[in-house]
Amino acid sequence: MATERTASVTWRGSLMDGEGTIDSVTSGVLSSLEVDWLNRSEDPQGKTSPEELIAAAHAACFAMALSHALAQAGSAPDRLETSATVTFVPGTGITSSKLTVHGSVQGIDADRFRELAEGAKNDCPVSSALTGNVELSLEAELVGAAQSA
Amino acid sequence: MTWDGTGARGTGSIDAGTGAFRGLEYSQPVRIGKGKEGKTSPEELLAAAHAGCFAMSLASELRNEEARLAVTALVVMDEVEGRGHLIRESQVRVRARVPGLAQTAFEETVQVAHEGCSFSRLLEDADAKVTIDAELEASDGN
């Protein structure tokens, strides 16, 4: 079944001097999030940006894909801490997304964990949408849980 | 970003590096279902990213301090045989008020903005379809 998600943004003025807000999304969890060009292209001053949202999407997508792969391998994770760092070059676009995961998982060894994490990195829908122009990298580490595989 | 439990039953939480948002919950049933339980999903975040990216690209081309743009992106994810779940489509809808701009110039500018939006490029390079439905609304006083 196809799933659909919508987000609405209002922008006022020019790019350099104007500003926008992410007004609403399907789930209702985001509203009145401010965005502007300076926060996007230089140091962020507490405002989000399209690239930060893509980073959030990528980290969430990867976490879901990996949790599914681990569960199918018989080792559902206790906890996965993931992050995505997206690099944006003005004029070029997004050039890289760096994923990290620290996993607390019972009954699996570090090599197998890394192998499944690599697969999740390659197969999650957001990775697929970035494929082509964006360099994807991964740092996967098993922490906390007994490595008793 | 944290995730607790399996893909089907677990739940996650998302924090932004800038602090613009934190503690956003998401889960697989919400992702593939209706999305009305107050949890976000990767596709919803992509929709927000695309709408923001397109709005900035169009603002950049219009160079008009009085411009007011309402941009909505609808992202569609679906399962493709042999390839799993993929982002298939993003439908961008633009309603613009731009004092002093003619319809033909608006249409040309929208096209340039589409070509200049880095996220539109990414999606198209990944074989996702990007459509733009843009309408120039009458400005106040016209």
Describe the 3D structure.
The complex is a heterodimer of chains A (149) and B (142). Chain A has 149 residues and is of the alpha+beta class. Helix content of chain A is 32%, strand content 34%. Chain A contains 4 helices and 6 strands, in the order βββααββααβ. Chain A has helices at residues 37-41, 50-72, 110-123, 125-130; strands at 3-12, 19-25, 33-35, 79-89, 93-104, 135-142. In chain A, the strands form 2 sheets. Chain A has a 3-stranded antiparallel β-sheet. Chain A has a 3-stranded mixed β-sheet with strand order 4-5-6, with helices on one face. The radius of gyration of chain A is 18 Å and the shape is elongated. The mean pLDDT of chain A is 92. Chain B has 142 residues and is an alpha+beta fold. Chain B has 2 domains: 2-32, no CATH class; 42-137, 2-Layer Sandwich (GMP Synthetase, Chain A, domain 3). Helix content of chain B is 34%, strand content 32%. Chain B is built from 4 helices and 6 strands, in the order E-E-E-H-H-E-E-H-H-E. In chain B, the strands form 2 sheets. Chain B has a 3-stranded antiparallel β-sheet. In chain B, strand 1 (2-4) and strand 2 form a beta hairpin. In chain B, helix 2 (42-62) packs across helix 3. The longest helix of chain B is centred in the middle third of the chain and has 21 residues, at 42-62. Chain B is elongated, with a radius of gyration of 18 Å. Chain B starts with a strand and ends in a 5-residue tail after the last strand. The model of chain B has no long low-confidence stretch (mean pLDDT 89). Strand 4 (79-89) of chain A pairs antiparallel with strand 1 of chain B.
